[in-house]
Design goal:
The protein is of the alpha/beta class. The chain has two domains: 239 residues, Glucose Oxidase, domain 1 (3-Layer(bba) Sandwich), CATH 3.50.30; 306 residues, Phosphoenolpyruvate-binding domains (TIM Barrel, Alpha-Beta Barrel), CATH 3.20.20. Helices cover 45% and strands 14% of the residues. It is built from 25 helices and 17 strands. Strands 9, 10, 11, 12, 13, 14, 15, 16 and 17 form a nine-stranded mixed sheet that branches. An eight-stranded mixed sheet has the order 1-8-7-3-4-5-6-2. Helix 17 links the parallel strand 13 and strand 14. The two termini are 39 Å apart.
Length: 576
């Protein structure tokens, strides 16, 4: 008799297939706690000092490991932990309590509790993150004490799959440094910057219902299929056998990757350009290796999100220059800072917003904090001094906003010229079409911009009034909605009629079901994750552009979402 495997169906956030033992950490922002570690009355001051040294050595190793993966200067993600370790007040208090007769564990947790009490009485998310840093460090310290004399390595997550309800971008980097196999995130919907960062670091991640926390305990065997959002709990041999080849080839080039061609054409010969969407320098090399025809979108907010403070102009220049050098003379589109919504700089104080997705984000953040914009654009212009870079503004709401930002760029270029600094004097300047109001002004924006890019994730969100991070309404986030597709067609017609290049990015750009429709509407530039290039090239080579045009016309004429879904082959249940 065959038993059905237990599994949880979640939502893919970062692709990959991994297996390992569960490690469960329910860590909501307001529920920080130290782990249970055995209280050894025999622990001495010398044991405490030895654990301090061991913890410091581990953090130094993690710094080195992540710096080898991520060339952005992000090793300061461990700086908060090291600063606490080196704080004579914190460690001094613990030492004095031990010297006065307190048990080592009680001395550590007692001082931790005092610090947490002082830091927790605030709504400031930055201070909440300090509580997390302190708690993580104390947990590491206690684990090292518990393993005193053991060869085990605290924080080594090899063979482990983390299940947790809360993550910061810096956590992703820590987990990669600590060799975690994969992550199951159990709170909220798709958090854009977390999933993008996980993809950039090739860390498989699935978003699942929080109920999994009640059914899985530490040490439970798991298999996570992050391609399809499946989590197998204690998978039987038959399931493991089905995934055997995928598990064995993880991290190795696929046949598609080895065979990728430098140019992509449809079955009937139409040229389609596949550009890369990246957020880290390391992805530029991957994009070049996979023969991307350029960088269609560099998400410049990533170095801001994974740091503990604003990168300087020179630090940003170093990042942008490395990308430029990796791509040679191929196209590079730098998007200016897109902060707001679910992308929050925890080191930068902002006012609480009742609806942050309708608040200070995208180009609006630029206008409110122009000094940050100026620093970033100067670094971009300097990095492109010897090649034709492009600069693009996110979430453009009007022609007025676009023209104002464009004038700022020209002024900054003039300032660099006056200072005698090598720079790109005349970069192409583009606008992202992500808002319904920008769709309505697409013709005018096409006249003023050098190029346009349709950001499909936000366009769907704002067209349908769906918060894409809200798991309660995730089923209603349908990019094949006829209104969304008609909006895209309107932008295509505006760009084509004015002879301006147009690309499409976001999840729709790499959707197997929607790609034929987009090709049929006249899209010729697709900006997609580097790893998607081989798959997309293979797909496009099977598409007949004439047949795709006929399909697009039928889908665009659909009267209902269900009708559009049936035409493109999407399995969809009614949203009511």
């Amino acid at each position: 008799m065959t038993t059905q495997p237990r599994f949880v169906r979640g939502q893919p956030a970062s692709e990959g297939v991994v297996k390992g033992l569960a490690i469960v950490k329910s860590r909501a922002p307001d529920d920080f706690a130290v782990q249970e570690a055995p209280a050894q009355n025999a622990w001495t001051l010398e044991d405490f000092l030895r654990a301090l040294t061991q913890t410091r050595d581990q953090l130094a190793l993690f710094q080195k490991t992540i710096q080898e993966r991520v060339t952005e200067q992000v090793t300061q993600i461990f700086a908060a932990h090291l600063a606490i370790l080196d704080d004579p007040e914190f460690t001094g208090r613990i030492r004095r309590r031990i010297e006065n007769g307190a048990a080592v564990r009680e001395a550590i947790t007692g001082v931790w509790s005092e610090y947490v009490s002082a830091l927790s009485n605030t709504a400031n998310p930055y201070m909440k993150e300090k509580v997390q840093d302190l708690t993580d460090l104390v947990n590491r310290l206690l684990s090292n004490l518990a393993r005193s004399g053991s060869a085990g390595r605290v924080g080594d997550y090899r063979g482990r799959i983390l299940i947790t309800s809360s993550l910061f971008p810096s956590d992703i980097l820590r987990l990669v440094a600590e060799k975690v196999e994969g992550v199951v995130l159990t709170a909220g919907g798709v958090t854009a910057h977390l999933s993008v960062l996980a993809r950039s670091l090739e860390l498989p991640m699935v978003l699942a219902d929080a109920a999994i926390l009640g059914t899985v305990v530490d040490g439970t065997p798991l298999l996570v299929d992050a391609h399809h959002g499946l989590i197998y709990i204690d998978p039987p041999p038959a399931v493991l056998a089905n995934y055997k080849s995928l598990l064995e080839t993880r991290g190795k080039p696929s046949p598609e990757e080895r065979d990728v061609q430098p140019h992509t054409r449809t079955k009937d010969g139409r040229s389609i350009r596949l550009l890369a969407a990246i957020g880290l320098v390391s992805e530029a090399k991957l994009a070049a290796d996979l023969k991307a025809e350029g960088i269609g979108l560099y998400r410049s907010e990533m170095p801001f999100l994974i740091r503990n403070g604003f990168p300087s102009e020179d630090e940003q220049y170093t990042v942008y220059r490395k990308i430029a050098e990796e791509m040679g003379q191929r196209e590079i589109v730098f998007r200016t800072l897109d902060i707001g919504g679910d992308k929050i700089l925890r080191y930068f104080p902002t006012q609480q917003e009742s609806n942050p997705f309708l608040g200070l984000r995208g180009i609006r953040f630029t206008f409110r904090h122009q000094e940050i914009f100026d620093t970033q654009v100067r670094a971009m212009l300097r990095a492109g001094f010897d090649r034709p870079i492009k600069i693009m503004f996110p979430l453009v709401p009007s022609v007025d906003s676009f023209l104002f930002a464009k004038r700022l760029v020209k002024k900054l270029a003039a300032d660099l010229a006056a200072a005698g600094a090598p720079h790109q004097a005349a970069p192409d300047i583009g606008a992202m079409i992500e808002l319904p109001c920008a769709v309505g002004m697409a013709a005018e924006l096409a006249e003023e911009a050098d190029f346009l890019s349709i950001g499909t994730n936000d366009l769907v969100q704002y067209m349908l009034a769906i918060d894409r991070t809200n798991e309660q309404i995730a089923d209603w986030y349908v990019p094949w909605h006829p209104a969304v597709l008609r909006a895209i067609r309107f932008v295509v017609e505006a760009a084509v009629s004015r002879g301006k290049p147009l690309s499409v990015c976001g999840d729709m750009a790499s959707s197997e079901e929607l790609t034929p429709v987009l090709v049929g509407m006249g899209i010729t530039n697709f900006t997609i994750p580097p790893r998607s290039i081989p798959r997309m090239q293979k797909l496009i080579q099977t598409i007949d552009a004439s047949a795709a045009k006929a399909l697009a016309e039928k889908v665009l004429a659909s009267r209902t979402v269900a009708e559009a879904a049936a035409l493109i082959g999407v399995k969809w249940k009614a949203e009511y």
